[in-house]
Design brief:
By secondary structure, the protein is of the alpha+beta class. Helix content is 29%, strand content 27%. The protein has one domain: Aminopeptidase (3-Layer(aba) Sandwich). Helix 3 crosses helix 5. The radius of gyration is 17 Å and the shape is globular. The two termini are 14 Å apart.
């Protein structure tokens, strides 16, 4: 499952507690960059025991450069047991009849910026989606920090072009949220918006993904996030062809 090797990188699933701890250590480095000695701490929660954990390693050094976790659902009727359901009211998605996977804790080591890392991670997901007949991906896409000011152009761009269709749109559940769709009226500067947009979110949008109309302020992680959904049928054929070429 989700195994793939291209160039100097290898994608594989975690097979041991040592693998899981390596992923949790990388997650802590990525999500808590301002903490002293972050490489000595772990980011973990109760969902780790339920998920498949995916590792992207640099085969030249053996270093873990990217990780994420996958939680599978037979249909939307199970979505209340997702990680995202802690923060978003997802009753609209209960009607989704196809198989779904939630992508969580996606992160790339801050010292590694090779775009092939993200490309290969998505290629491995593409292989899994095709093999398992997955019809929707969803998950929380995080912004670093809890200050909205650096991201106002990004949020304005999301409001203008990428909100979830009303029949799937998540509602507010968390207490601390930024209702950008209701509050922002500015015209987005696309260049500025893309400069600060998290790479994972940018990739979702390039493939036809949508977002919630509000961002959740997660004080525990020191982040903001939007829930993002991607119906596989909405991915442009040219994008599918590129991903499948990498995953072949």
């Amino acid at each position: 499952m989700l195994a793939l090797t291209k160039g100097c990188y290898r994608v594989r699933t975690a097979q041991s507690d040592v693998d899981l701890k390596a992923a949790q250590r990388l997650r802590y480095i990525a999500f808590h960059p301002d903490t002293a000695n972050p490489d000595q701490a772990l980011d973990s929660d109760r969902f780790d025991a339920l998920c498949t954990h995916v590792l992207v390693e640099d085969m030249r050094s053996g270093q873990l450069v990217c990780c994420f976790r996958v939680l599978e659902f037979q249909n939307g009727g199970q979505i209340e047991s997702s990680y995202a359901a802690q923060f978003y009211e997802l009753s609209s998605l209960k009607r989704f009849s196809g198989r779904m996977i939630e992508i969580g804790r996606f992160c790339i080591h801050p010292d590694h910026s090779d775009p092939d890392i993200l490309r290969l991670a998505w290629a491995s997901l593409t292989r899994h989606v095709d093999a398992q007949g997955i019809e929707m991906l969803f998950g929380c896409s995080s912004f670093h920090g809890t200050d909205q000011a650096p991201y106002l152009d990004t949020f304005a761009m999301l409001r203008a072009s990428h909100l979830a269709p009303m029949h799937w749109r998540p509602k507010v559940k968390a207490l601390d949220v930024f209702r950008f769709a209701a509050r922002l009226r500015r015209r987005p500067d696309r260049r500025k918006a893309l400069q600060v947009m998290p790479p994972l979110l940018r990739t979702y949008l390039l493939m036809g993904g949508w977002v919630s109309d509000h961002a959740v302020i997660d004080a525990q992680l020191g982040t903001m996030h939007v829930i993002t959904g991607l119906e596989i049928s909405a991915i442009p054929d040219a994008r599918k062809k590129l991903l499948r070429a990498v995953s072949a």
